[in-house]
Design the sequence.
């Protein structure tokens, strides 16, 4: 869990950071989860991994900001994806799964998004950023 969610984020940031520092500009968007701020029952490794992404993003923003690099994090919220699609479709399983149930209860209107909307949101966010 830590390798997938935190270590890969760190390694990717290191790789692109070297280039961006040399160019004196760049934009990095890391993805995190609200689980990194609140915790999720039944997923004890996921929450600290995502909390690590938040801390990493904050640290890199401070360290690399003077080099013209903007580092931010985006939490798209709970989204339907291939891993949870079946659980969400089945109301009995939806109530039984603590993560799915807790996530849906925390969403205003109980409506969830679709994972394919995340890249569009990311591109729109990047387009709105500009350098001075």
Sequence:
């Amino acid at each position: 869990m830590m390798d997938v969610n935190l270590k890969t984020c760190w390694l990717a940031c290191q790789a692109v950071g070297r280039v961006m520092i040399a160019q004196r500009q760049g934009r990095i968007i890391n993805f995190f989860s609200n689980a990194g701020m609140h915790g999720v029952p039944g997923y004890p490794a996921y929450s600290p991994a995502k909390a690590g992404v938040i801390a990493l993003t904050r640290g890199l923003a401070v360290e690399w900001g003077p080099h013209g690099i903007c580092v931010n994090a985006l939490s798209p919220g709970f989204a339907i994806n291939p891993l949870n699609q079946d659980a969400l479709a089945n109301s009995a399983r939806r109530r039984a799964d603590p993560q799915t149930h807790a996530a849906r209860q925390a969403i205003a209107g109980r409506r969830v998004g679709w994972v394919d909307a995340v890249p569009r949101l990311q591109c729109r966010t990047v387009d709105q950023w500009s350098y001075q």
Remarks:
- The mean pLDDT is 78.
- The chain has one domain: 2-128.
